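Hi support team,

I submitted a single chain yesterday and got back a structure, but I'm not sure I'm reading the token output correctly. Could someone confirm the output below corresponds to the sequence I sent? I've pasted both exactly as they appear in my results page.

Thanks,
R.
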Amino acid sequence: MTKKAFIIGNYDYKSFSKLNGVKKDIVDIQTILELKSFEVSKYENLNFDNFLKLTQNIQLIQEDDEIIFYYAGHSLQFFDSYYFVPIDCDQNSCKEIEYLEKSCIYLGDIIAWMATTQKAKILILDACRDSYIENEMIYKNDIFNKGLIEIEKFTNFIIAFSTNSGNTAKETKYNGLYTKHLKNHLIKYDLSIEDILILTRKAVLQESKLGQVPWEYSSLVDKYYLSQLTLNNVVYKIPLKFNGIETIKKYDSNLLVSTQKSITYINFTKEDVISIYNNENKIIDFMPLEQPVVRNFTLLNEDYVEKIKANNDYFYLITTNGYLYKVSIDNLNQCDANHGTPLPTINYNPIEIFKHENTLFGLDVNNQFIVISDDEKNIFVFENETFLYKIICESDIYDLCIYENQIFIATCNGFYQHSIPSQETLLIEDTKHFIIDCVWKEKKQIYFAYHEGVASLDIQTSKVDTLITFEVDIRASSLCVYQSRFVIYWQYNNALIMYDTKLNIIVDRYEVDNIEVSTIHGIDIIENLLITRFDKYQIGVFKLK
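Hi R., thanks for writing in. Yes, this is the structure output for that exact sequence:
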């Protein structure tokens, strides 16, 4: 199945009035639909011959394609027929029906060609803008009384008209009035096309003071959504023994979750997870089948995990008592579990790599280096688990990341960049005003929440882009990034937010009741599965697609 969109904007007319808002209309609609994963074909200022070529492309759609057809420009309704007006159409000659039929494009033909696909077909016509055709040539009554009778035999269509029969569609300073409001709702998630069009109509009626009345004509057989992405699709829940979920980290299909008094290992085995491929043999989905393997163990001396990172076949832990531990995934899988308790337990002692007198709370790893920080502004650098040297910082350290041989240090005064082994540390100037709360690294970007929002730092260029601006008194306690586009973060008010940084809109939110704010920290993603808190005593696995 392919989602395809045909966008046509005619504005530079030879005989009809020019339409200044159309050029921006089609750009705005193109941008939104591309970000909604549509393959967009955009056409501007089509004369009659080029319009006919476009119809040939429409005839090439496949039977399982989902189609959106958007048109902005002049159109005419002559008795029982509705026509798109090419830019070379002569306005005066349109008084003759013979000329109209030979020089304009009949809507019924477009409908018939689109009927090849059995999937939903959406036509949005922001037309009838300015018409100078003599009134007696335009059918003034209900547009659906007779004008669409020829296409009523086709199913799974919805046709949206920006205005009622015989009327013109108004323009605003930048967009057509209809498209101005359409795009505001088209960007939203989890709204059906019917919901989008109803909300658009309400806004148009209000702004035009009932002077423009959008209409729809529908034979859809199911609800149709341009995009659905939600935090309410919980695949399964994993009970935990204790309230405080401090940190969650994945490696491949394995998770390690630390709570206030224990560590829980979760293994999504290959038998539990299947990958779904498209016709290009690319993974497009990730489907869990059964409850994963769950094992629980504790550290010695009632120690408390501050952070977890993963690399190759190991998890690395830092603790309140100043330990850096290594945990073998193979060993965890081989341990026999005691099933006599609600949560299966194992006897497992992680491998000690380093011991420090202070609490450790900053950690990152890659294939070569390990970097950790303590609560006294110190950073310790390891190569292949062997200690190299210590860095002393001037500012409090909130978090750190490592990329190749570069350490990025998040402090109360912004980001510092440190090179291994040169030991040169430099402040990244663009970050001086940030007070950083939490950090997420993905590919060549560092995403971080600060006191006013979420921003990204390009590792190679040190360029900073603000992605989200928070409302007053909003702070984020943890975050992750999905598909390099969707930022998912916990607010300190116990709300989990998913935000689309391309469309600049909140996709969804999920709220947890009756838990302490300080216990919400852990969040991670395996493919399209989000793993984080579901409620006070459970981890939730949320399916994002």
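A quick pointer for reading it: The CA atoms of residues 9 and 44 lie 5 Å apart. Let us know if anything else looks off.

Best,
Support desk
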